[in-house]
Write a structure and sequence with these properties.
Oligomer: single chain
Helix content: 40-55%
Number of domains: 2
Shape: globular
Strand content: 25-35%
Strand order of the largest sheet: 2-1-4-5-6-7
CATH topology of the largest domain: Glutathione S-transferase Yfyf (Class Pi), Chain A, domain 2
CATH class of the largest domain: Mainly Alpha
Structural class: alpha/beta
């Protein structure tokens, strides 16, 4: 699985850009704030319909313009497809594959799988549970279209229930309708809980092996999925905490409050891990993602590395680079010296600057 070509029009800082990628390692180098990450974001958007940085569609449209266009040519199992995406201010994005419009974003998923690794991932251990839920959602949406659909429907039902909780304060008779949204949350939410649990179970042995390899067996990494409530008691939890939710004006329980805990030698990484251990944990998760996707779809995902090599020591750099042997990789950096020293051959190099990209 590879991306052959990417075209950006009025996207971020690019008025017009077309770039062809090799099937191996593609290095985008240049000074900071020149648009290197914007190229990775364009690839990620074409694969997932989501921003690499969690941005809204309108924020990715070039300043002064009303819409942006992203086009990507992909290849999987010998089949070539063209993805077209239009971002429009105040309107839903438009999507098409091979010229055929798509009704839902979920229909796009599967044409291009990506695993992204950025400095933000290195600090995932320090942030709140929202970042770790995003880790679940980004990967599961690529692997499971039904999960993606349920996630979207759960989000809509959650918004409706929260709005209703606020309206009940002025109109108590509306309380009788809360069960309608409870049923919707349970219907879609139990699938999310079940899928996250299964995903964690699949990830545990792989991430343990990767982490053990990086640390030469000195550390054991363990993942623990921490659902806010179980499949079995979700409905009862919503009923039990209704009065509390009415006071708070929001839904206090459900998979939108899930978390993922990570332990090294039984010590919580977020609370007790060193910076080096947190970096190793994040790297182990990303390497495990590659293996999990490879095993699930019998294809290798595209690896997106956003200026992370400088954050890793030479041992971790070497471990990450060893995973690139049969993986199309697009990597950004401010200087090539350290990268090329680790991997002197087989690279396609692009200079990024002045809103342009030149292959050298």
């Amino acid at each position: 699985m590879v991306i052959k070509k990417l075209r950006l029009n009025n996207f971020r800082n690019y008025e017009e850009l077309e770039i062809e990628f090799s099937d191996g390692v593609n290095i985008l180098f240049g000074d900071n704030a020149q648009g290197k990450t914007n190229i990775l974001e364009g690839v990620f958007l074409a694969a997932t319909t989501k921003s690499l940085r969690g941005s809204k569609d309108r924020d990715m449209i070039r300043f002064g313009q009303e819409e942006a266009h992203i086009s990507a040519v992909t290849e999987r199992a010998g089949m070539t497809h063209k993805i077209d995406m239009h971002l429009k201010k105040g309107r839903a994005k438009g999507l098409a594959v091979d010229g055929i419009p798509l009704r839902r974003s979920a229909e796009l998923l599967g044409l291009l799988h990506t695993v992204s690794f950025s400095p933000e991932d290195l600090s995932m251990m320090n942030n709140g549970p929202e970042e770790r839920r995003r880790f679940y959602d980004l990967e599961l949406c690529q692997l499971d279209k039904i999960y993606c659909s349920n996630l979207a429907d759960y989000g809509k039902a959650l918004t409706q229930r929260n709005d209703l909780l606020k309206q009940i304060a002025d109109n108590p008779s509306l309380k009788e309708t809360i069960e309608v949204w409870d049923e919707q949350l349970v219907k879609f939410g139990t699938y999310l809980i079940r899928a996250r649990k299964r995903f964690t179970e699949q990830l545990i042995p792989i991430v343990s092996e990767k982490h053990g390899s990086i640390t030469d067996g000195a550390e054991q990494l363990k993942l623990v999925y921490e659902p806010n409530c179980t499949e079995e008691d979700f409905r009862q939890t919503l009923k039990r905490n209704l009065e509390r939710d009415l006071i708070l004006h929001y839904t206090s329980n459900g998979p939108h409050r899930d978390d993922l805990s990570l332990f090294i030698n039984d010590n919580n990484v977020k609370l007790f891990g060193s910076q080096g251990q947190k970096r190793t944990t994040a790297l182990s998760l990303k390497l495990a993602e590659i293996e999990l996707i490879r095993g699930a779809i019998r294809e290798t995902p595209v690896l997106l590395l956003d200026d992370v090599l400088s954050e890793l020591d030479r041992n971790r750099q070497s471990r990450l680079l060893s995973e690139m042997e049969d993986v199309q990789t697009i990597v950004t950096c401010t200087g090539m010296e350290e990268f090329v020293a680790c991997r002197p051959e087989g690279n396609t190099i692009y200079r990024v600057g002045g809103n342009q990209v030149n292959r050298i």
